[in-house]
Amino acid sequence: MKKKVSFIAVGQAGGNIGQLFEEKGFPVLYVNTSREDLDTLEKAKYRYHVPGGEGCNKDRHKAKQLIIDDFDNIAGEIESKVRADLMLVIFASGGGTGSGAGPMLIDLLTGEGKTVGAVTVIPAPDESVKSHINSYECFSELTEISQTAACFILDNENGDKLELNAAFVDVFAAFLEIPEKHKSVKGNIDKAEIMETLKAHGMAILARDKGKDSAGIIQALKGGVFAPMEQDGAVKYIAASMAGSVCMTDIEKAIGTPVDNFQTFNGEETICCISGLTYPQARLDLVYTKVADNKDVIRKNLAAARESGMKKDVNFLNDMEPTAKKQEAKKPQSRRDIMSKYL
């Protein structure tokens, strides 16, 4: 299964998560505008520094332009180093390089017929207003891409960043190992069903629990490392290897009725993935509120930026910052069309 899934880790936060996946044997390509960030990845096999990049300092526009200028080379690195049945782009939504480049990379790669999903991070409430601006803008782009595979959204509100990263990587790897490690006369989950679950468009979450009843895994699904699920939102797939008396019916009653479910059984722990979920709008509304509550400070800072000739691109609060006109949403016809949406 590790040959079927690869990762493109963009920016510093993406690199931190990517390293954990590489340690578990997954192919990872690290892409960054900062050579200093790449140099910290001492054991990384595939690193790529975007020419002309010296870091983006949370400037999404700068990141987009650098990626666009060098996309042919980046695409070549992806094709030769980490092409797989499913590729997941890892990035923090509140940063610069990853936040600016992540959605656009996904859009460009899916436009070329590749199956690409995302692993991204929502900033904690105590992180900067700029991080929240970037995050909301990033998600406004990401959620408009209709052909993405699963999007795993880690939420820094839920604990220590490094601990959240490690917990996610561990459960993701465990989920992919189900076809090989979990066998039952009552039913099995095969590799094709794992991949179908991961390729479903929308948010996805994972959880594991060593308890022997359904309550434990349901609590883990609702209170884990991910952004919270929308109440009464959509569900496409539930895939679970269940232990003890845990049953699919209980999970469906708590989470929602999926289009299909895949299940097997084991004697140690329950591992569950739910995909095709509605994006977490309630959580994103809190990100917006963080910005709106600080709009006077933002206006003051942006006024100073305008006086110095700086130009930034925040496209979700038009009254707070100069913004380039967004083109009407159209089905991309070429790489150039896709790129033009992001600048």
Can you offer a commentary on this structure?
By secondary structure, the protein is an alpha/beta fold. It is 42% helix and 18% strand. It has 14 helices and 10 strands. It has a 10-stranded mixed β-sheet with strand order 3-2-1-4-5-6-7-10-8-9, with helices on both faces. The protein starts with a strand and ends with a helix. Mean pLDDT is 89; it is low at 308-329.
Task: Give the arrangement of secondary structure elements.
Layout: E1 5-10, H1 11-23, E2 28-32, H2 35-39, E3 46-49, H3 60-69, H4 71-81, E4 86-92, H5 97-111, E5 116-122, H6 129-142, E6 150-155, H7 161-176, H8 178-181, H9 191-198, E7 202-209, H10 214-222, E8 237-242, H11 248-255, E9 260-265, E10 270-277, H12 281-292, H13 295-307, H14 335-340
Parallel strand pairs: 1-2, 1-4, 2-3, 4-5, 5-6, 6-7, 8-9
Antiparallel strand pairs: 7-10, 8-10
